[in-house]
Amino acid sequence: MNNIEKMGKTLCILSLSLSLIYCGQVDEGTGGGSITIVHNNQDIRLYKPVANGSLVYQNVVIDISVEDETYLTRYKVERKADAMQDYVYIGQTLTETYEDANLAGGTYDYKITAVYTIDGQEYESEAANVDDMQVLTIGPCLINGAMNVDPCG
Description:
The model is unreliable at about 1-30 (pLDDT under 50). The protein is elongated. By secondary structure, it is mainly β. The protein has a four-stranded antiparallel sheet with strand order 3-6-7-10, with no helix packed on it. Strands 9-8-11-12 form a four-stranded antiparallel sheet, with no helix packed on it. Helices cover about 0% and strands about 60% of the residues. The protein has one domain: Immunoglobulins (Immunoglobulin-like, Sandwich), CATH 2.60.40.
């Protein structure tokens, strides 16, 4: 608890934190919120996706959702492998999961945008970020004298 004293009065600020419990390695994701556009004199709310990433071997799996899927047609996924680089479009998904497979070792950042189609016109939401996904390089190993590329097998 933090105490801040101002003009002889003490203000107490209680800080609470909530944690999401997940089995596996997860990095923080971001998202949520919305923007409102005007289409044919009608206010339409476009929701920013919520995105969370996890690692499965050398794959990054991103779980994506939005508060309301009205007009949602797909999610656009972009990636950068170096903090100094720009994001590059790597694909899209029509489902709530995107898997970036067989990655080389390194740290990857992702930007996920919801794409909405209204009367044939596309609109994009603000982007959600999944940052610092650290993929380790794991080589094949010998199990019972046989080559096995599954590091957990």
